[in-house]
Amino acid sequence: MKSLREVLDWAEEKKVAIGHFNVSDSLGFKAVVETAKDLDVPVIVGVSEKERDFIGLEEVVALVKTARENNLNVFINADHTYSLERAMAAIDAGVDSIVVDGADKTFAENIALTKEVVSYARSKNTEIIVEGEIGFIGKSSKVIENLPDGVSLETQTNPEDAREFVKETGIDLLAPSVGNVHGIVKTGNPKLNIERIGEIHKAVGIPLVLHGGSGIADEDFRKAIKAGIRLIHINTEIRVAYKEGIEEGLKSSEIAPYQFLAKGVEEMKKVIRERLKLFNGL
Ligand SMILES: [Zn+2]
Fold this sequence. Notes:
By secondary structure, the chain is an alpha/beta fold. It has helices at residues 4-14, 26-39, 49-55, 57-69, 84-93, 107-124, 159-169, 194-204, 218-226, 236-250, 257-260, 262-279, and strands at 18-22, 43-47, 74-81, 97-100, 129-134, 143-144, 173-176, 184-185, 208-210, 229-234. One of its GO terms (biological process) is carbohydrate metabolic process.
């Protein structure tokens, strides 16, 4: 069993990216863990503040710890956390990593919040990985008509800001804005700014995280990984697959939940499998 820090080092060495998949319930958890086990790759289960409230923070931490006792390299990330209070609660509950999201605050406010979380995390357990964000990429993981308001080429992360942000906060991972957005844009997701990813990676010297992976072309993913992305978040795509699968399952006359919900798990697994293969170069 490796720690998340060791797995990140391994990803850097292998030039691969670790898949991060958000879940809202134990079925999502099952789909992620069984697929990673099948492919024999490490994986991160993510829970945003609302997903945490639904599945239960202590409950999902316990699920991950149990899977880990069975020798699986699975980790739990408190995704997009907007306040110090919520960050402290997640750290106290035993998460492996936490995303501090101050991306729509001012640069100084973002640094201040992120710094506070880093210092709290370090005081609890130096193995906890803290991720910071700069550059706004939208907030909701759903299918959207157009690019979220406030996302444009001008809001992409500047390498100098990234360097200062990392130096000031002491974070372990950085999530920049490089053409990625949360959600699947009906008119097509923007192209990733691969050159910018490379510049930021060089400027900060820590692994980079790509949020809003749904809707990005395979070739863009490969180039992004080559340029320094070591962790990729997928949410919207598995939400869509889950819902469509359950809708299909409900069409049968089955009344046992493990029958009509199974189709949802199956559909999520298909998406997760393809993404994990791509991210791990399999
Ligand atoms: Zn995200």
